[in-house]
C-alpha cells in the first residue's frame, strides 16, 4: 500500500521501519520536514519525504502519528482530503502524562473526526508501544499481539485491517469509532504498566479466547 | 480465607462456585436473603448465607457483586465496617448498557470508596466475565487469565492479590484506585467483544510481556 505517516517521533519512526520492512511505500511528513527527510533516507528506497501539502496525494492510508494536541492541525496541513482514511493512534494524555485529558463522553479519535473535514477516521495502534511496533508482534510464547481498530466506515476499516495484517499483527475489530473511548483508557493503562510500573516497553494488551 | 459475597447474580454465583472450589469459607448475602440461602445450599458445606448486617463480621474480604448503582447501599447494609477490605468488581454501565456512566474524572471504585465509611476498596475482577470466573483461568493455550487489581492501601491489595492467586488467576497490580478509570472502560470493551461483537463469554484481556 501507499501510506503516509504524519509525524517523525517514536511512533512515526517505528511505523516507518515496520511498514517499509513489510513492503509498503511510505511517505513521511511533518512540521519538521528536515526530520522527515532524515528518517526517510535512513529507511531506504521504500521511503521518501514530502512537504505536508504534497504528502497525502495518492495515499491509501494516512497514519496520524503526532501527539493528540497536534492531530487536527497536522491533518489540515495536508490540504484537501477527499474521504481519506486516517489511522488515529494517539492517547490523549494530560500535559503531565498522569492521565487522559478527555474520554467517556468523547475520545481523541472522535474529536479528530469532528475537527477535520473530508476524512474517515479509524482508531488503531494506540495500545501498541513504539518498541513493539518496531520489533514485531511476537510477545511471549503463545499469541500474536493484537491491534484494535474502531471506526464508523466499513471500507476504511477494511483498509486498516489489511494494513494491520500486512505488518504481522492480529487485527481485532473493536466496533464503532465511539469505542475509542474504551481503547484510549486501555492505551493509558498500557503506558502505566510500561513506565510507571516499570514492566518495560515490550508489553501489549490482547484478548484471550477460550 | 473467610470471604463474604454481597449479591447473588451472575458474578456473585460465579464467585461462590470458584471460591468454595478453591477451599475458601464463603458467606453469601444480599437484599434477597432467600436467593442467598438457595445459592449457599447449592454450593455445599463451604458456603452459608447470612442477613446483611451479620454477613461481614469476621470476613477477611468482602466482594461487592451487585450492580454499581446498588453498591453503596449494599455495603452500608453490612453495618459497621472497620477498615474492611472490599473488592469492587462493577462496570458502571448506563441503564441501556450502551456505555459507561462515569469515568476519567472518577470511577465506580472511587465513588464507592467515597460513599462508604470504614472500608478499603480494591478494584478487581471487572474484566472477568462470570463464565470465565466460574470455569477457570485457562483461556487458549498459552497464558493464564490475569485479574487486574487497583487500590490505595498496600495491605488490602496484598489480601486481594492472595485471593486472586488462590482461585488460579494471575494477579496484575494496576496501581492506585484511580486507575479504575482505565480498568472500567476495559471491562466495558470486554462486554462489547463478548456480547455486541458476539465473540462469546469465554474471553478476557491480558497483558502479554515479551
Offer a concise description of the structure.
2 copies of one chain form a homodimer. Chain A has 8 helices and 11 strands.
Strand adjacency order, main sheet of chain A: 3-2-1-4-5-6-9-10
Cα shape of chain A = globular
Helix content of chain A: 25-40%
Distance between the termini of chain A: 34 Å
Low-pLDDT runs of 5+ residues of chain A are: none
**Most extensive chain contact?**
A-B, 42 and 42 residues
**Would you list the SSEs of chain A in sequence order as H and E?**
EHEHEHEHEHEHEEEHEHE
Radius of gyration of chain A: 16 Å
Q: What is the subunit arrangement here?
A: homodimer
Largest sheet of chain A: 8 strands, mixed
Strands of chain A, total number: 11
Please outline the helices and strands:
The structure is a homodimer of 210-residue chains.
Chain A: E1 2-6, H1 10-21, E2 25-29, H2 33-43, E3 47-49, H3 52-55, E4 61-64, H4 68-76, E5 84-88, H5 108-115, E6 119-124, H6 130-135, E7 138-139, E8 143-144, E9 146-151, H7 154-166, E10 170-173, H8 180-196, E11 203-209
Parallel strand pairs in A: 1-2, 1-4, 2-3, 4-5, 5-6, 9-10
Antiparallel strand pairs in A: 6-9, 7-8
Amino acid at each position: 500500500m501507499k501510506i503516509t505517516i504524519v509525524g517523525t517521533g517514536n511512533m512515526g519512526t517505528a511505523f516507518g521501519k515496520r511498514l517499509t520492512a513489510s513492503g509498503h511505500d511510505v511517505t513521511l511528513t511533518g512540521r519538521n520536514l528536515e526530520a522527515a527527510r532524515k528518517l526517510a533516507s535512513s529507511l531506504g528506497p521504500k521511503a521518501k519525504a514530502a512537504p505536508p501539502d504534497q504528502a497525502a496525494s495518492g495515499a491509501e492510508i494516512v497514519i496520524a502519528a503526532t501527539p493528540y494536541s497536534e492531530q487536527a492541525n497536522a491533518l489540515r496541513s495536508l490540504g484537501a482530503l477527499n474521504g481519506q482514511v486516517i489511522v488515529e493512534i494517539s492517547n490523549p494524555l494530560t500535559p503531565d502524562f498522569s492521565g487522559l485529558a478527555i474520554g467517556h463522553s468523547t475520545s481523541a479519535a472522535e474529536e479528530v473526526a469532528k475537527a477535520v473535514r473530508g476524512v474517515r477516521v479509524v482508531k488503531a495502534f494506540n495500545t501498541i508501544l513504539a518498541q513493539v511496533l518496531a520489533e514485531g508482534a511476537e510477545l511471549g510464547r503463545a499469541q500474536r499481539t493484537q491491534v484494535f481498530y474502531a471506526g464508523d466506515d466499513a471500507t476504511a476499516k477494511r483498509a486498516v485491517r489489511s494494513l494491520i495484517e500486512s505488518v504481522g499483527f492480529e487485527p481485532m475489530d473493536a466496533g464503532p469509532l465511539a469505542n475509542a473511548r474504551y481503547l484510549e483508557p486501555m492505551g493509558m493503562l498500557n503506558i502505566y504498566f510500561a513506565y510507571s510500573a516499570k514492566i518495560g516497553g515490550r508489553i501489549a494488551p490482547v484478548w484471550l479466547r477460550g
